[in-house]
């Protein structure tokens, strides 16, 4: 029996007075965060929500995210972790599909998420209750997070759950255009934390960690939030990443390591608002840096490493693997361009089209087996069976492995676009674009971008009698898709190249040879 809430409960029991969270002027101890998580659990129970129920959490990086997350777990319920970047229609789909019976959402006027969450809640019949964190007046009279925890006891132990019970559902878009809910178990996540802890030095006094990438994303949720709590570290939270503010916080709080998606590394290097003296101080302070969530370009790794005289480590993972499965176990001895080797308790192999293991050095599909692999996709046995075959999760990414077990990503078998560390699946964007009255056909691809890794580009044809413009389509998309999903580049064409089966030939759109093979 094990409940992931034990992670916070254990840290609070050992170090109740140690600072757990720093957020602006607010500084909370582990004892205080644990007590608030208990109040959330007791408030949910008083509202008639029971163990096993699904509760959606729609919140940026704030102390309430941590307390609500662990409060839901303490109840024995399941956290449905929803991106705070989504629009109302996208949130509504996840609320309905996940069978969420309640929602805790941020409603502050500094972000649009409150209005989107409210609209989604009102459209979802099965979601009976919603509590808003610091709701803006524009939301009207709503139940608040303060109402949820008011007068509730600050004492509660996590409910008894099994290691293989679902703890969290995170949605990841699929090639069908509909997001799929990856069910991650209590065991999936805590063992992932263990393998990451094994490869990073632990400060016996806790140390501090800046979390600037969103905790609703699997990378920050497991490899930052849970990792910090497991090691009783102090979490310094940024609600929104800003490179100058990140540098200020690292200097002020004496944070010796930086982790984030590669675009954050790039932003810090290029930030004009950081004084040369502060960059010099940061160089003296930093001991290490790491990247995840997207491929780290070798040139960026070298530039960041040279600028701050620190080793920069990299890794690989997916929502479906909780996420970490392959990473640098030390800064030394990793071949240029490699994402590292398998983590403890994880098996990796490269397979061919028939699922047979490919010879070392040859490109095939990367497959992962071990404690990190998800339980499955919620209410989607067909997608689960397609993704997990004989215990191996088929990532859809093309890679090769050398004789020493080092893995090199060669490309993506699927059409996944990774923009700024966030996954964007073309089919989902295409399905939304096809709802535009002026669009006849749509095809979405990823194109290189100097800071975001990839940018989303749409090729569209006009509907009969319509004259769509790129500007109109971009503006419309911004209203209907999350900020990381909508195409900022649009090209209107009279027709799109089609293959014999009627599918759009995306390689031709990009001016590539249709028979082009993966370039290693």
Description:
The chain has 520 residues and is α/β, with parallel strands linked by helices. It contains 16 helices and 27 strands. The strands form seven sheets. The chain has a seven-stranded mixed sheet with strand order 6-5-3-4-7-8-19, sandwiched between helices. Strands 17, 18, 20, 21 and 22 form a five-stranded antiparallel sheet that branches. Helix 3 links the parallel strand 3 (54-58) and strand 4. It is globular and about 65 Å long.
- What is the terminal separation in angstroms? 46 Å
Largest sheet composition: 7 strands, mixed
Total DSSP E strands: 27
> What's the total helix number?
16
Q: Give the spatial strand order of the biggest sheet.
A: 6-5-3-4-7-8-19
Radius of gyration: 23 Å
Helix/strand structural class = alpha/beta
What sort of overall outline do the alpha carbons produce when their principal axes are compared? globular
Mean pLDDT: 92
Relevant terms:
520 residues; alpha/beta; seven-stranded mixed beta sheet; five-stranded antiparallel beta sheet; 27 strands; globular; disordered C terminus
Helix-strand blueprint:
Elements: H1 6-14, E1 19-23, E2 26-29, H2 30-46, E3 54-58, H3 63-74, E4 78-82, H4 88-97, E5 100-106, H5 113-123, E6 129-133, H6 145-149, E7 166-172, E8 180-185, H7 186-197, E9 208-211, H8 218-230, E10 234-237, H9 243-253, E11 257-260, H10 262-270, H11 276-285, E12 288-291, H12 298-308, E13 312-313, E14 315-317, E15 324-327, E16 341-342, E17 346-351, E18 364-370, E19 376-377, H13 381-387, E20 388-389, E21 392-401, E22 407-412, E23 417-419, E24 422-424, H14 426-433, E25 439-449, E26 453-462, H15 470-480, E27 489-492, H16 506-509
Parallel strand pairs: 1-10, 3-4, 3-5, 4-7, 5-6, 9-10, 11-12, 12-13, 26-27
Antiparallel strand pairs: 1-2, 7-8, 8-19, 14-15, 15-16, 17-18, 18-21, 20-21, 21-22, 23-24, 25-26
